């Protein structure tokens, strides 16, 4: 990845927590029965590994790709509207055997954070390139690429 896009700091964090939706026909419910051909079948609640709700936590199906210490030009190129976003996502899809969920974390190098100027569509991208005051942490954004 770092070689293809000429990047200095690329890391991969596995085991990222996410919540996965449970299909309605797979959800447990107490005190209810399933009907098949008008006939009552056993209830869907099997005590043991029991999940209440419509979502379940998952740690095995998501990772985060972090690209940090980016110049301002590189940072803009990896945003969803930039020229490197689609090639990067296609490259990750190509090398993945299983289509896992993943996030892209982009971090600006500290000296690359500049002031916002009205009328400049590169420095005033609200939520992407504008930061209030002096950030305590390195300015960064996380993009949910595939959930």
Highlighted features:
147 residues, alpha+beta, 2 domains, four-stranded mixed sheet, two-stranded antiparallel sheet, 3 helices, 8 strands, 31% strand
Question: What integer is the average pLDDT?
Answer: 83
Low-confidence stretches: none
Using only C-alpha atoms, the radius of gyration works out to 22 Å
How many helices? The count is 3
In total, the number of domains comes to 2
Helix share, percent: 10-25%
Strand content: 25-35%
Number of strands: 8
Distance between the termini: 21 Å
Query: For this entry, what is the oligomeric state of its chains?
Result: single chain
Taking the sheet with the most strands, its summary is:
4 strands, mixed
Task: Please provide a written account of the structure.
There is one protein chain. The protein has 147 residues and is of the alpha+beta class. It folds into 2 domains: 2-17 and 60-146, no CATH class; 20-56, no CATH class. It is 15% helix and 31% strand. It has helices spanning 2-5, 72-78, 85-95; strands spanning 9-13, 18-21, 33-36, 39-43, 55-58, 62-70, 101-108, 140-146. The strands form 3 sheets. The protein has a 4-stranded mixed sheet. The protein has a two-stranded antiparallel ribbon with strand order 2-5. Strand 3 (33-36) and strand 4 form a beta hairpin. The longest helix is centred in the middle third of the chain and has 11 residues, at 85-95. It is elongated. The chain starts with a helix and ends with a strand. The relative contact order is 0.18. The model has no long low-confidence stretch (mean pLDDT 83). InterPro entries: T6SS_TssG-like. This is Type VI secretion protein.
